[in-house]
Amino acid sequence: MSATSIHISALDGIVNVNSLFTLAVFIGLAWNPTDPTNSLIDSTQQPGCSPSPKVAEDLVAFHVYSFSCFLFSSLVAMGLKQAIRMARSAHNEGIHWAFDLAHVNKVILRIGYVVSAAGSVCGSVFLMLALVNVVQIKLGVLGCGESRHGYGAVVPLVILVPVGLLIYVSTVFYAFTR
């Protein structure tokens, strides 16, 4: 497999994962957090466990931030992919002047990878924060005495997502230094 194919496959992977996460964001935005039938807590039995309107506002804001980051990351990755294809196509056709115009600088390519990866990481963090707010809306505020189910949902989320992001960032850093 050529280096160009590896680069294009990596960029395809970024775009595909971002697309899945963007779908999750849209599903999250379609859900109405202020609908009283969506909550699993009984505010009459657990006073003080109902989330404030700020939690619902944060939920929507984090979804929008997440969407923005994933879209940014995908657009950068698709732009890099297109530049690689243009350079490869011009080189294979023997059009030297077009190859010179479409030449992909390896430094710019690496910076593009890092920028795209940073967008994906930020999008993942914002999506995780949005999910924490979903848990608070559905199961009650985390500071509430009856929120053991909320902690049961949030603790794995705030452990597994950062570990996955650490692995992803380490892999990107490794690829960046090679």
Automatic annotation (TrEMBL):
Keywords recorded for this protein, A-Z: Membrane, Transmembrane, Transmembrane helix
Q: What lineage does the source organism belong to?
A: Eukaryota, Viridiplantae, Streptophyta, Embryophyta, Tracheophyta
Instruction: Give the stretches traversing the membrane.
Output: 12-31, 60-80, 111-131, 151-176
Q: What is this protein called?
A: Maternal effect embryo arrest protein
